[in-house]
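Rotation project, supervised by the postdoc (A.L.). Task for the rotation student: set up a whole-complex structure prediction and record inputs and outputs verbatim in this book. Inputs entered:
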Amino acid sequence: MAPSPSPSDVTRLLQAAQTGTPGAFEALLPLVYEELRGLARSLLRGENAARTLEPTALVHEAWMRLGAQDSLGFEHRCTFFAAAASTMRRILVDRARRRAREKHGGNVRHEPLDDTIAALEESCGDVLALEVALEELAARDARKARLVELRFFAGLGMRESAEVLAISERQAERDWAVARSYLRERLASVLED
Amino acid sequence: MAAPNDSFAAAEERFHAWLEAGADAAARAAIVRSARDEDAELGRLLDLLIRGYTHLEPGFLEPADEEGLAGSALGGFVLSRVLARGGMGVVYEAEQAAPRRTVAVKIVRVADGRAADVEREAALLARLSHPNVAQVHAAGALERGGRVFAWFAMELVSGARSITRFADEAALDLDARLALFLDACAALQHAHQRGVLHLDVKPSNLLVDDAGTVKVIDFGIGRARGADDALGFAGAGTFVAMAPEQLDPDAVIDARADVHGLGAVLCELVAGRPLRALDGLAPDAATRRVRKPVELALGADVPSDLAAIVARAVAHDAGDRYAGIAELAEDVRRFRACEPVRARPPSVFRRLALFVRRRRALAAAAVLVALALAGGSTAALVSAVRARDALAAETRARARAERVLALHERIFAAYRPGNALGREVDVRAVLDGALAACERELAGDPSALAEMLGVLAATRTELGDLARAKELFERALELAPVREDGSVDAPLRSSFAYALIQLGERDRARSELEQALPVLRADPAARAELGLALYRASELARLSGDAVSARARLDEALALCGDERTVLRARVLEQLGAVEYRARDLARAEELHREALAIGGERLPELHPARASMENSLAGDLFERGKVQEAREHWERALATFEQVLDATHPDLATVLGNLALARERTGDLDGAIELHERALAARRAALGEAHPRVAGTLRNLAMACLARKDLARAEACARDAIAVDERACARPGAPCDGADLGQDYLTLGIVLRERRDLDGAMRAAQECVRQLRAALPAGHADLAQPLTLLGSTLVDLGRAAEAEPLLREALELRRAKLPGSWLAANSASVLGGALVELGRHAEAEELLAPAAEALAKALGPRDFRVRDAWKRLATLFERTGRTESATELRERAAGP
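Outputs recorded:
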């Protein structure tokens, strides 16, 4: 297992992504992944272990930690949340896929990380079904799918999501109504199949 | 980011329409069906969205209260539910027991070991107490799981909306928006005085509550001045409103960052769009945009002084901004009070304009003066700055501005309520006083005097005092400095052309515009002036019957407008409509005029003459399309405006009087019509003198109204007066009239004389008319058809059918070519048929008479005199060919009620 990244690595990459350095955003994702995982584990070890750990809370915790330690500005927050939302989504989807393979007799090594992520997954419902519907939505309108990612996987408020996507709050609300309605109906039929 | 695909975007649009219409689930089937008829995929997606929406469970996919703090107490505040959340923290609704109230509690994470800073920050925030600041009641630090949070209990803003959203929902006008903005300024100024910067000023932090009161929130994340990095959220703010230095960790952040934020809010409030267009940009691209200077484009409808205020507030370098909020607020206040703003260098005429506008009570017409003056000022400033030595010119312009301003302070001092001692001050008296003072005090500065005279002349034009306007323009042009390229002030020429058009001096107007246009085209700063000049050139072309060139000018002007719903666009559309009207595409004309009036209604005050002019144009289309009642209503409105703001002699007033008279005539109010024609005539005579074709045109209208009222003697006198007027007008060199006008006069006389049974006189008049028109109009012009028909039918009545036949045939062909299928063509056919009956060519006659009578009856109804005449002609044919029964029946029908 790789050593936990130092927050300054994340900071450095956030700054690089900010200035448009090619590949910086992609390089950021595994670090954010580690950040989230490390944070989840320390939380589970701590006094709040009994409490259900929610992915969105985790993302916020991670940001507050970074923000407080490195005095990161708002612009980094946007980049961070964009990265964290995608990462969180990927974490949950990967974990769900692995579990599905296990159920069908696949032989997959059990990773220690799963213990912490299992705690997250409980509060998310059927991640795989959502993933199918979300991919569909992304093909039709990428921005709306990103909004769902930010809201559902990073727990951002409407105003903050709008800021990250650089759209007006009103536009975000309109997008949100469409995305929810679309996913509600598609999710129902995916789950039926 | 990929754009949504087409069917999805279309479905989305209709989904929102359905939501906005009340999200009625019962309407789904019908809406989906109609969408499916257009496109199967669209129908499917729309169905899916509406179904999904009606099935939504509360909280589906929504973030939950993940902190699990609901129900817990913080310093006497019991948290109930999450109101909002974001990266900087969570906001809960909370209850306080004593005093009993509902508050908002904001919880933010702070750096470890900074708990003491929280207390200090809280103490600062608690010092803020202002009606426009959401009051912070209490604050504290909270430790949970080894992490430190700060919490702030603050006033809960009920019905909170962002300032921009509130302004849009309440449809506030500019002044009300600025009042709101000043309240926000007051709140921030209060904070600055107490050492608290906001640093995240943006519309969503400037809330407006249920009572319409501004409440500024989120001071919590601003750093206290001097308390460096107190909460670890330095540089927070949104990209749209953020000051560039907030991205620079080494920059000193001071009050001017909040000035920038306020400037961005002001931009959005007055221009309806954010300072920076960051829609759809990734965060990194957005920050790059923040680091670049903004190119302000507020749109033509934002007054230039206000645009200057925004530009100064959001200047890229903090050093170029207002030094503090007090200075920004003061300039906005000055703008509202129509005083010169500090954001702009002074310009003589702008300051004068403001001065006049401030004394709005003088007279309604003073508004027009102000508009004219404001229009002139831009040009004055531009030409000053363009001078060879820009710096010296600037100094000179400033010195001159000061001198002229002082001069005008003196001029207007006489009219201040205290000095006027209750005298009713007429705007013309003000203008006369201004002129005298300018001549006295600017004698040594011919170019300043020239500009001043030009402004006064433009004002006189607007007021309808055309003779004085012309005189002033000519003096201004004589004095105007000649530029390097040999041209003199192009906007001056363009305004002069407008006055000349009103005066009917088209050749001179054309020459002025031809000199002005190339200069304006070459000057990117003169877009508004160019638009106006093109508009004037198109009016000139239209009046000369050159539709092609009129359209070309208007298209060029329209291209300058872009998509913006500006006054210029409305005026250009109005003019385009006028071109279509003249080309007889009345449906298109109506459409264009409706659009023009819609924009004019949005952009112009109720009593603006340009808006009344649009009403007038639309009414013209409606009238011609038979919608007489609607036309009459528009004309009544236009007249009401013109009567209040224009001189009694203004040509536009006379035009509307004449038009409304026609509508009254058509709706049977003949006395009312004659009264208006008489007023129009008096106005034209006063404005244009006795020998002007428009005076003759009004006389013709009066003659026709008298004819309808069976006052035949007066009708004849008016028609003869019209001829006399045009004969004198045409005799003048460079005459604004030609044989076409004279031809119309003779036509009127012919119609009146025929009605008086003076067939010889009618014939001679009609012959003269045809002679004049053949000389003046191109061959095959449709206007020839009516006099030819009159002449032909009079000749038939005189027993000279053989002479009549070729004339009537020509009339018929003209009408068939220009107006196929119209009742006019049918009428010509019937008259020709009547002549053929007289010539004994019965078979030929019947071929024309029978279908013509049918078409006329269908178009005009059985009671119209032209229908009855057609039946009589057919009856004569039947009598001559032995079909007495049919003839009798037709005669009875023709004599019917």
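Student's summary: Chain A is about 75% helix and 0% strand.
Supervisor addendum: Chain A has a mean pLDDT of 72.
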